[in-house]
Amino acid sequence: MASRILIIDDEADMLLLLRRMLSDRSRYEVTATDSPLSLPDLLRGSTFDLVLTDLKMPQRDGIQILAEVKAHDESIAVVIMTAYGTIESAIDATRKGAFDYITKPFRKERILQVVEQALKWRGLQQENLLLREKLEGRSRFPTLIGSSPAMKALHLQIDRVARTSATVLITGESGTGKELVARAVHSHGSRGSKPFIPINCGTIPEPMIESELFGHVRGSFTGALRDKKGLVEEAHHGTLFLDETGDLSLPMQVKLLRLLQEGEYKVVGANTIRKVDIRFIAATNHDLQDRIRKGEFREDLFYRLNVFNIHLTPLRERAEDIPALARHFLHKYCVLHKKEVSRFSSQVMAHLMEQEWPGNVRQLENTIERGVIMATGEELQMADILTMAPEARTPCPTSPMEAAEEIFQLPFKEAKDRLIEEFETQYLTKVLARHAGNVSQAARDSGVKRQYLHRLMRDNKLDSRSFRKGEPEDDSP
Ligand SMILES: Nc1ncnc2c1ncn2[C@@H]1O[C@H](COP(=O)(O)OP(=O)(O)OP(=O)(O)O)[C@@H](O)[C@H]1O
Ligand SMILES: [Mg+2]
Question: Domain containing 460: what range?
Fold first, then answer.
């Protein structure tokens, strides 16, 4: 297999020259860019074995490139190219993890030699990693169930990034396991024995977030009766998990940016600046790029958080994980509720695998828990899960028409009513899932009044709470 090489240099001539020197197609697959800012996208899009980067570039220098590449994957070889006057910094780069440096101008033989050595080193790194994985066994993330390709890729990503202190941004729909992954990254890294401090930026009322995060001194505002330690201080040397980061207000985003950039913050009501050593993991189910476009999220903060992105695949796109997850939850809730249900009827399993699961793993988990509570025998039956969970009632066909075969055998009026009912349930399920159970937003999106949406939901026996995380409902008709 050809080795993948990425060349970064702001001079187009240099890129052309290097491309020509490394033009052996059977051995090297070369990608070249004159824009260092495109690095994160390139790293996400493809697996490189070697990054060959210029040291001095206007937008971002080679040392920063090195740090970014290593945060993404320590085993990628980085070679720095430099002009004569800047050898000092190039040597510094090798201390920071670059494989080697090469001075410009260079001859073809020299560059080929360095490239070959670097690729050999990369090969060894990967062999070591595989060996270590074999030795340690496959079940290093016992809490993360699933063996679909998406889950395997996830395990690898967690493993790699846990070895670094790089900031991680976990994205994915509600209930896909973002918090679980954050904990896995923390506990498999060198900070594993230190505190993991979560803060839910979406549920803490805005005026309190700053004091929650940074703490306050007595008397700094009405009600501040004594000094309070902030979560940031508690996370010192450990990990701060910023959950629902997309919900932070713009002023809080500025303060967070400073904490991320300088490791500095101010306790509310105090004048002194404090320093901390923290690893940051952020999670969101919002499309942050979209929020940036709308001016609701700072782009600079996004780049600070998005050093290493882990994106979680929705459950419907990895249905092969459902049986293992279902058995895991069956066992968990039998123990918890002291029941003895040992298996699913084949009909139930087929049903579970057909669902869309807009609430992902959490919704599956809730469905199984309620099923366990309802079950009377050793086998979980359709009736046990159909008596509840509005979201799991009917197999969710992809379009109302698909559901219609048997409906079309009915008398006209009855068929029409049934179809409308089907359509309503599906429409509401989807729009509520899109807005995580927020009725006001769902109403706006569907162009109906909130009260009307509530009535439709009642008619269709849909509960907004089953689309969100379990907070009490804030929308009442
Ligand atoms: N791969 C998995 N194996 C076992 N349990 C899982 C897995 N993924 C998710 N879960 C479980 O599903 C539930 C939801 O997971 P989690 O809270 O991490 O989701 P989330 O992505 O943070 O959701 P939200 O965006 O709504 O906060 C948890 O109880 C978690 O333990
Ligand atoms: Mg979460």
Answer: 400-467
